[in-house]
Amino acid sequence: MNNGPGDDNALEGHANNVSGSVLGPVVQARDIHGGIHVHQGFGPLPKPSQLPPGGILIDRIEALALLDFVRSDDRGAGVPKVAVVSGPAGIGKTAVALHWAHRERHTFPDGQLYADLRGHAADQPVEPTEILGRFIRAFGVAPERIPVGLAERAGLYQSIVSERRLVVVLDDALSAAQVSPLLPASAGSVAVVTSRWRLAGLLMRGARGVQLERLTTEGALELLRQTLGGERVEREPDAALELVKLCSRFPLALCVAAARLASRPVWDLTEMVDALGQERQRLNALFVEEDIAIRAALTLSYRGLTPEVARAYRLLGLFPGGTFDDQAAAATVGQPRTQVRHLLGVLVDANLLDDVPGGNYRFHDLTLLHAREMAERNETPAVLDATVRQALDWFLHTTFTASQLILPYRRLPAPRLAHPPAEPIVFADRTQALDWLEHEFANLRSAVRTALDRDAFRTALELVDALWPLFLYRGHHAEQLGVDRLGLEAARACSDARAEAKMLNRTGLALRSLGRLEEAADEFGEALRIWHRLGNRQRVAGTRRRLGLVEKDLGRLDAAITRFEQALQDYRAENESRRAALTLCDLGETLIEMGRDDEADTRLTEARDLLAAEDDPRNQGRVLILLGRARIRDGIAAAQLLAQGLRVMRDIGSTTGEALALRALGDLALSDGRRDDARRYQEEAREIDARTGLAARADE
Would I find Cytoplasm among this entry's keywords (predicted)? Predict the structure, then answer.
């Protein structure tokens, strides 16, 4: 921070300090005589608590002791403490990792991180770049401040965790390469990785292997006692032993079989033994031993379901996402929500579904494959296709509803749905709609990919288009770029030039937000050529405005003004008053940066008048804040405008706008010599930036 005239530190005489919560590099200097000191600061950050609930754990004393050894091993700073819990599917790797992590939470006071890497899921494994983004956001770092590249994200992650004591559970890893960037290098942290593979690449770099074997016979019997009750097991000891043998002492197979027996309290264990023995014999020529045990248990449990529950099980296996709630499940299977809640409860009780925090459900990867196998075996191709389309239509309808509530001025045509949801979600307000988009983002991206894979290009395109408010308000620009490129792929597959140009504008905005300005200009330039060819003057103006934003970012302010003036002329010719107002805001902000406050005031006053009739409170608040900045020399008028703008932003829950107003109020206080107020406003704005980082650059 330069202690020049008008700077906050100048009010402290010769003091030179960094206050508040700071995320990212800070340049701290007063009188510079040959050196600048760079501080990478991370102030008080949230303590993430991401561990899913654990389950029953039996017969794993040795594995837990090895994890204790890893925790206590002192290898020095910079050497990650890593345990790789490996073994075949269904052996209980996740249960061991979560049990130990929950037991030792007190040892890791700075938080617990968890990620399902989906290394063996039916769809693609999760990229480490995405997991890093989630982890960094869990510490309150603004999405706008998270870099896009893997190396840059890994570096930021290590900077955050370097002095912290954390436990990081990385579940279902596919390879060492997927895991390595996620391992905390701090001496007080431990990473527990689960995988079907031993991950020799990690072991070679010092990780400790924890290989899980099947339960002992006594351990398997104890698991049955825990799930069925000791009296029932002791009443039929020979049948219990045979059941353990038929399940090959695999925890997953035993839990599924026990859940089936628990739901049939009058059954003798002998009945389950006979049925399971017949199923194993049928599978014997097809699968290796652990697959036989688990598949036999799954199939037997599936056959014990009522027809309605069995149908829900196999159709939910087609859901295009990783987790789902009862609303998504109801839309997928085409049943009323109240009825589906009961079906989900039965499937959880049968150990065919896992319930996860937040009222969601998910399949174990082997159970998901089994559910899909049952669907393909028992349903016609038409039913399979209709089930996936129902889920996609539910996503599209809900995303479109959220989008229209958040940004009512967008002129999106209503999507054409073959299966409109019978019980659509009704959002109470903008914030709830935004929260839903953010919570469901991973599923929405999977839905877009599924639509593309099924040649439902228009559905994919409409999903991507409706996601825009999430990126506008909450950043996620690295993820945005990937999704928008899927939209561009869909537009080109549709041979829809208009949609292609629209998606090029979107990818350009994402690249601009990521600081990749030359690439953004290229995308905008390609879009501009298409709009010219289509003769769409309004869209030509919009793309010129976006090119002006890039010029402004590059510091070419005169060129930016030329672009904005061209766009403004076209918008006025097309009677696009709202878009003209946004362009006037861009002009006003650029003029403020050039020190031409009076000209800025004229432009911004016109923008305020044009926006008065629009249903766009965010930009109405923005123009008030810009007007306050332009009138900073008139302290009373500026304070009134900024206070009004701050109220608007708080009323609509726009934390980005709130931070914008607070920074402007801080500048005003500083110019008036009110250093305590200035510091308070600036610290509040920094705290909001650190907590949210909502995108303020791409007002549309």
Answer: no
What is the distance between the alpha carbons of residues 278 and 292, in angstroms, rounded to a whole number? 11
Tell me the domains of the chain and their CATH numbers: 8-42 (no CATH), 61-211 (3.40.50.300), 217-303 (no CATH), 307-379 (1.10.10.10), 430-634 (1.25.40.10), 635-700 (no CATH)
Q: Smallest Cα–Cα separation from 420: which of 389, 466, 463?
A: 389
C-alpha torsion sign, points 116, 121, 127, 128? positive
C-beta separation of 607 from 571 below 8 A: no
- The residue type of 501 is A
For the chain, report the end-to-end CA distance as a whole number of angstroms.
32
Q: How far from chain centre, in Å, is Cα 610?
A: 36
Q: Which token pair is 6? A: 């008008």
Three-state DSSP at 676 gives helix
Beta-carbon contacts of 635 under 8 Å, excluding residues fewer than 6 positions away, are: 668, 671, 672
Rounded to whole angstroms, the Cα distance separating 553 from 53 reads 46
pTM over 0.85: no
CB-based burial, 610-638: b 16+ in 10 Å, e otherwise: bbeeeebbbbbbbbbbbbbbbbbeeeeeb
Binning the chain into helix, strand and coil, the percentages to the nearest 5 are 60, 5, 30
Enumerate the β-bridge partners of residue 194: 85
What is the spatial distance between Cα 51 and Cα 98, in angstroms, rounded to a whole number? 7
Contact 215, 223 (CB under 8 A): yes
Could you tell me the pLDDT band of residue 660, with boundaries at 50, 70 and 90?
Answer: confident
- Among 82-96, 161-175, 360-374, 400-414, the least confident range: 360-374
Give the confidence band of 351 by pLDDT, cuts at 50, 70, 90. confident
Q: Does residue 52 contact residue 29 with C-beta atoms inside 8 Å?
A: no
552, two tokens: 């402004």
